[in-house]
Amino acid sequence: MWPWGHAAFGYLLYSFGSRLFGSRPSGYPTIVLLVATQLPDLVDKPLSWVFELFPQGYSVGHSVFVAVPLGIAVLALAVWRHRIEYGIAFIVGYWSHLVGDIVLGLVGGNPYTFARVLWPVVTLPPYSSDLSALARIHEYISAFLYLLSTEGATGPLMIALMIYFGPFLFAILVWLVDGAPGITAFRRLFSSPD
User: Fold this and answer.
1) pLDDT tens for residues 52-106?
2) What sections of the protein cross the membrane (predicted)?
3) Has this prediction a pTM greater than 0.85?
4) Under 8 Å between Cβ of 18 and 26
5) Can you say whether residue 154 is alpha, beta or left, with left for phi > 0 and alpha for psi between -120 and 50 degrees?
């Protein structure tokens, strides 16, 4: 799943979950959520692609053996600090990333669907090619663009675009309906004091 897909999936779960409890997402927890949706890739891709510590970009950050205790620890800290919404946002963001990767693997018929989240019990085989981090990113983007061009050549480009960007566009719409939470908080984080 691409970063925007993880962000969309996590935000939609968070927004709809918030509505079930009679509220809407708020500023700083939404930022925590969005960072948490990217956290497994921000940990594992550099460990594999840059530092070559793991044979694939699915290891520590994607492991349920790390994600579950870490999520519970963050939630406990948030409860202790009287900021439960931050802990919930972290858990929804982080765990939705893992669920999204599993669902995408099931849909795509990936033989390592569940193995992706079982490190260190299961270690995935190494990539078929030994590439630098930049070359690996280029390979991912090229494969994505090739998929879109192939789908376009055979006709269902709109279906491919809706699969890859539809949930993201829907999440943006829901985010706007929610009042665009996080914008003001983000500005406060990066504004210089007068």
Assistant:
1) 899 888 999 999 999 999 999 999 999 999 999 999 999 999 999 999 999 988 8
2) 60-80, 87-108, 157-177
3) yes
4) no
5) alpha
Q: Is the dihedral of CA 64, 66, 132, 55 positive or negative?
A: negative
List the domain boundaries for the chain: 3-184
Residue found by looking up tokens 């090229």 in the block: 142
- Calculate the CA dihedral of residues 179, 164, 52, 58 and round it to 10 degrees: 80
How far is residue 102's CA from residue 117's CA, in Å, rounded to a whole number?
8
Please write the tens of the pLDDT for every residue from 47-65: 998 898 998 889 999 999 9
**DSSP assignment letter at 155:** S
| Amino acid (1-letter code) at residue 58 | Y
Quote the tokens at residue 179: 């009042």
Torsion of CA 93, 94, 100, 101, to 10 degrees: 150
